[in-house]
Design a protein that fits this description.
By secondary structure, the chain is mainly alpha-helical. The chain has helices at residues 3-23, 29-53, 59-91, 98-107, 109-130, 135-151, 155-161, 167-181, 188-191, 194-213, 217-255, 268-271, 277-280.
Amino acid sequence: MGLFSRLKTGFVLSIASLRVLRSHPKLAVYPLLSGIASIVFVLALLGPLFLVSGTSIGGLEYAALFVVYLGSTYIAALFNAGLVYSVGQVFRGNDPDIGDGLRAASGKSGTLLVWAFASAVVGIVIQALESRGEIGAQIAGMLFSVGWAIATFFIIPVIVFEDDVSVKGMFTKSASIFKETWGESAGANVGLNVVPMLIAVAGIALAVALVFVLPTGATVATAVVIAVLSIVAAMLVGGVITGVAKTALYVYATEDIQPDEFNEFNFDSLFGSDEGSSSRRGSGGVLGQKGGI
């Protein structure tokens, strides 16, 4: 599959996910709460630390950096788990409830914390490699980062929908599903960013045009607000459609069922063939009888 085809596939997938968001706009609450909680957490942790230590970087600062990775990853994972759970409810024909989604995510808090810890360790290692001057270390860090992203692409749906999944099992299951779905067309992932990017670009372009036409103080302030709101909107939309797309792909990969909301999307373009569909059917638990919903 060529690059253009991959981008087109990702774009079509994002449009289908966007229709889910349009039907259930409350799903945007998850990335909104995640962003707010993460900002509060980072400021509460690093603010006092920098006031005390100034600009020096020592052991305490590196420990704080690890805690930031751990906490921010856990917060993101918790709200993403709630989002994925609610999307699963949508695919079952139910109206998603934010409270139910957060309770379901809290029920997986132990596993999510393990995932956050592993992600924090990997994040520190990658940053250490990329911060070194040697080109070899920087390339190794980049490759490690890409490999980690691939292996953990479906980690949240696996944690949410699989019963009693082991630490090793959640990583192997996630990597296996990625290989089945986007292993041959990973570039389609880029296509999921097209819609959020268009939202941000449109808002920023409007803000710039407004300042250019009416260069006053009030106009500049209004333009800044428009630009910021467009970026926030892009982040919220991007967070939701990524969660929706991952859940849809997970459903198809594990149960061989195409959600009604994606009836115009050709999942076989990702799988490449129908071979092995019988092994996928029923192994998950989103729409079938098994699993955690």
